[in-house]
Design a protein that fits this description.
The structure holds two protein chains of two kinds.
Chain A lengths: L5 H10 L6 H22 L19 E2 L9 H5 L5 E2 L2 E5 L10
Antiparallel strand pairs in A: 2-3
Helix pairs in contact in A: 1-2
Chain B lengths: L2 E12 L36 E2 H13 L3 E2 L2 E2 L2 E4 L9 E4 L6 E2 L2 E6 L2 E14 L3 E4 L9 E5 L6 E7 L6 H18 L11 E11 L9 E6 L2 H20 L7 E6 L4 E7 L9 E2 L6 E2 L2 H9 L5 H12 L3 H9 L1 H11 L5 H19 L8 H12 L5 H14 L3 H8 L7 H14 L1 H8 L3 H14 L6 H13 L1
Parallel strand pairs in B: 14-15
Antiparallel strand pairs in B: 1-12, 1-13, 3-7, 4-18, 5-6, 5-17, 7-9, 8-9, 9-12, 10-11, 13-14, 15-16
Helix pairs in contact in B: 2-3, 5-6, 6-7, 7-8, 8-10, 9-10, 12-14, 12-15, 13-14, 14-15
Classes of the chains: A mainly alpha, B alpha+beta.
């Protein structure tokens, strides 16, 4: 493909907080290009008679009753916390070093 | 050039369920941090969400109450962004196919009807709660996260840009809150964060059809804050435009201390959220009969109640508004009204002395047995007790719950009336206060009040004031 996807890869990597090497970027730009080619081929199909769907099974979502069940213990909850302070997850400052707020 | 303000609101509302939207963790407020958490709401790999039926029903109920068109088929999407209150780095929300579209809310502002249209109503999951190390998010070195709130069902209501001042926004929110509270979808407690509001605000030359560049205002923690923040932001934008500048699209943070809006960052395009259909959830399909059932079960709306209070009881604007805003007080009025038909008098007592006593004692609106209230008013209407005794009795009944008739006989509070009983008191007071008598005779009306007070005191507060007044006048002139 003639289109260069390296800018898109950089953009998506930034949004996903991923650091990629130059080789990785090149590799993924190529892969992204292949994926989009495949999507383009699918778009050539005539889907006039097909209902759009986001799921392969035609089935209504299952529901559960509004009942309270067991939660995890505090230690289990915080077991994988990169940083813990008292009973909280501790995270780096959000709106200081140019980090975006959502 | 004259500018007009254009405001649209995004309201977030926690639905009143026992368990979370996608897992069975409790939604109760104020629990120890991170104790209402499980693999689903912590976003641990391999966990799968399952819909809470009640959350869906409440979302539909709220949408119906707002005349929004409930969709038979809707879908959940992942909204991807990195923020520490979101353990999965995406929020399960509804983007392309929300649960309800359109809708409106009718208001009355300065006796003029005002229609505020809605864009959409959608369901999503609540995020966790952040506690910042500094005074605010700005400049804090670190933050602490409590995920108890993460995954509570959250309804987002988006209005069209139909509001044109901070005051209108506040009035809209007050009515919306009442509407949702009545529908039973949420407890709408702003102080607990179960109702929150962000606003989009822009200015445009009056009469123009094109929207100006908007700013998004966040962190408004009360309806009053919404009004102040939007008025502040409108003025800020106006000054920029008047001086020839242009508005930058950005998010602002309302600073409650300083009463100013502070810009946070330039707004990204929505495509950066990289929405895509949530693969872990099947489409939400609703049946028409289900929706019809929920619609039939909708309780009376505030507007319906206002109309009924006006027509059924002939109440004035003030009372109607009080008995709608304070729903349980209104319910109490109606309960007593089943047995006491002078509704005007009843309404005056309830919004006056009764409400005062409720505030004094901190009791709930139905603290006094309706029958006892009726008994008290009947004693007063029949002239068995006077007004000030009735007020005293009410205060006492609030505490002891005692029957007013019993209190009257126990304490000897029965009204003193009739010449035989009152005349001796009146004559005594006249004889003891010649100065006041002379003052009255020389035209000072106040002197009569003084003498009245003396007679009432002599009677232990039990004399019939009307009769005392008449007797005093007659006796002095004699």
């Amino acid at each position: 493909m003639a289109i260069d996807f390296s800018k898109d890869v950089e953009h998506v990597a930034k949004l996903a907080r991923l650091e990629l090497t130059t080789e990785e970027k090149e590799k993924m730009a190529g892969q992204l290009s292949d994926i989009l080619d495949t999507a383009r081929r699918i778009q050539e199909l005539n889907t006039d008679a097909v209902e759009p769907t986001s799921h392969v099974i035609e089935f209504p979502a299952t529901m559960r009753d509004d009942l309270v069940g067991e939660s995890l213990t505090l230690n289990r909850v915080l077991q994988n916390a990169p940083m813990r302070e008292k009973d909280f997850f501790r995270v780096p400052g959000i709106a200081k070093n140019g980090n975006d707020e959502q | 050039m004259e500018y007009e303000v254009v405001i649209g609101l995004e309201i977030h509302l926690e639905l009143q369920t026992q368990s979370k939207l996608f897992c069975s963790c409790s939604t109760s407020f104020g629990k120890e941090p991170n104790t209402n958490c499980c693999p689903v709401c912590l976003g641990l790999p391999g966990s799968l969400p399952v819909f809470n039926r009640k959350a869906i029903e409440l979302a539909v109920t709220a949408a119906l109450a707002l005349s929004s068109e409930v969709q038979l088929s809707s879908r959940f999407d992942r909204k991807n962004y990195h923020y520490p209150d979101l353990p999965k780095a995406y929020q399960v929300s509804q983007y392309e196919k929300p649960v309800a579209l359109g809708g409106c809310l009718k208001l009355e502002i300065d006796n003029e009807p005002k229609l505020v249209n809605l864009e959409r109503v959608h369901l999503e999951e609540e995020a966790g709660k952040l506690i910042h190390s500094g005074v605010s998010i700005l400049g804090s070195d670190y933050s602490l996260v409590d995920y108890n709130r993460a995954g509570i069902p959250l309804l987002e209501i988006v209005t069209k840009p139909d509001l044109c001042s901070g005051r209108e926004a506040r009035l809209f929110l007050e009515e919306l809150r009442m509407m949702l509270l009545y529908s039973g979808a949420s407890d709408c407690k702003m102080e607990e964060g179960s109702l929150r509001c962000d606003a989009n605000i822009s200015l445009r030359p009056r009469g123009s059809e094109v929207l100006g560049t908007k700013a998004e205002v966040k962190n408004m923690n009360s309806f009053r804050a919404v009004e102040m923040a939007l008025n502040y932001e409108a003025e800020r934008q106006r000054q920029i435009l008047v001086s020839g500048g242009s508005i930058i699209q950005q998010t602002c943070h309302w600073d409650e201390e300083e009463k100013i809006t502070i810009p946070l960052r330039s707004k990204e395009g929505s495509s950066d959220y990289r929405y895509f259909p949530e693969p872990d959830l099947l489409p939400l399909l609703l049946e028409e009969k289900e929706i019809r059932k929920l619609k039939a079960g909708l309780p009376e709306s505030p507007a319906e109640r206002r109309l009924r209070l006006r027509e059924e009881y002939g109440l004035g604007k003030r009372e109607v508004s009080l008995f709608t805003a304070n729903r349980s007080l209104g319910d109490y009025f109606e309960k007593v009204g089943l047995k006491y038909k002078d509704y005007g008098n009843l309404a005056r007592w309830i919004q006056g002395d009764y409400l005062y006593q409720l505030r004094e004692t901190g009791k709930s609106e139905d603290a006094l047995e309706p029958d006892k209230f009726v008994e008290l008013l009947v004693l007063l209407d029949n002239g068995d007790i006077n007004r000030s005794v009735a007020k005293e009795l009410l205060a006492e009944m609030m505490i002891s719950g005692e029957s007013p008739s019993r209190l009257v006989s126990e304490k000897g509070l029965k009204q003193i009336s009739g010449q035989d009983q009152l005349l001796p008191l009146v004559e005594k007071v006249i004889a003891e206060n010649p100065d006041a008598v002379n003052n009255y005779l020389s035209g000072k009306e106040k002197a009569l009040k003084f003498l009245m007070g003396k007679v009432m005191a002599q009677s232990g507060g039990r004399a019939d004031p009307g009769e005392v007044n008449k007797l005093l006048k007659n006796k002095i002139v004699e």
